[in-house]
Structures are given as C-alpha cells and as structure tokens.
Design brief:
Layout: E1 28-29, E2 43-44, E3 55-56, E4 59-60, E5 63-64, E6 73-74, E7 77-84, E8 90-94, E9 105-111, E10 122-128, E11 131-135, E12 141-148
Antiparallel strand pairs: 1-2, 3-4, 5-6, 7-12, 8-11, 9-12, 10-11
Length: about 150
C-alpha cells in the first residue's frame, strides 16, 4: 500500500508491488496498491491524463476529428434513429442527447422505401444542438445517424 510520508508533494509515494518505471502523479485521489487498481480511483484532479488506452466496462475512450478541424477532441459520440416524413415531406430529427451546438455534429439520412420520382432530401430550416428539420419524400420512413461532440 502506498503511504505519504510528509504530506507536502507526494515525492515519496512508493507503492509496494508495483513494477519499475510506473509512475504515479500526486493528483490521484484514492488508494493504489498495484497498477491494475488505478481503475478504482475516486477522482483525478489534473488537466492532463495520458496513456495509450483508456478503457472501462463500456469500451475505449477515443478521440474524434470533425470536419476541417486539425486537432482531435475527446467526448465525441454517435446517435442514430428513424422518423417518418409528413404528407408535406417534412420530418424532424431529435437527438436523445443534445450535442454542444448546432455546428458540432454531422448527420446523414437514408430512405427506408421507394421514393419514386424524388431524388433530393436534405436538412432544412432550423438546426440546433438537440436536432434538426428534414425535407424528403412524403410519408416515407428515414433512418439517420449523427456524430459529433
């Protein structure tokens, strides 16, 4: 078990049983008895976490690159669903979890049936963090998928 000798800066933090060349940052809060127990930390109070992979029971944390951005960002997620257009060819895509802004996501649709004589569908009108409006063939079901932050 790691123990802190003077409580000033954590320089003496020396976990027993930990492999050589594994270093612990003094901003970790919780108990660490081996490198495998880092997952049990209660919090990390630091602006930087680095490593090759961050994984939990829900999968790996990965970065996302949106549009013409040149820097990857963490926190991206994907949502999908479906809707049926009205007789007037209107539909609404509503996200279960809003994105950070109207420009922080990309969405695409595909029709789930025959749209005879209709070859254009598009995102139209109001676009906000919680969804967007859509124009397509009348009374037709569309599937959508959105990715963003």
């Amino acid at each position: 078990m790691a123990t802190l000798v003077d409580g000033l800066g954590g320089e003496e933090l020396a976990p027993s049983g930990v492999q050589p060349n594994i270093y612990f940052h003094p901003y970790f809060v919780g108990s660490i008895t081996s490198e495998k127990e880092i997952v049990s930390l209660t919090s990390v109070n630091s602006p930087v976490i680095s490593g090759t992979t961050i994984v939990n029971g829900q999968g790996a944390l990965r970065s996302i690159l949106l549009g013409s951005a040149t820097t990857n960002t963490f926190g991206g997620f994907v949502q999908a669903g479906s809707f049926t257009t009205t007789a007037g060819s209107q539909g609404t895509i509503v996200f279960g979890t809003p994105y950070t802004s109207a420009t922080s996501y990309y969405v695409t649709t595909t029709s789930c049936g025959s749209a005879t004589g209709f070859d254009k569908s598009y995102i139209s009108g109001t676009r906000n963090a919680s969804g967007c409006n859509f124009v397509g063939a009348a009374s037709l079901r569309y599937d959508w998928i959105a990715a963003g932050i």
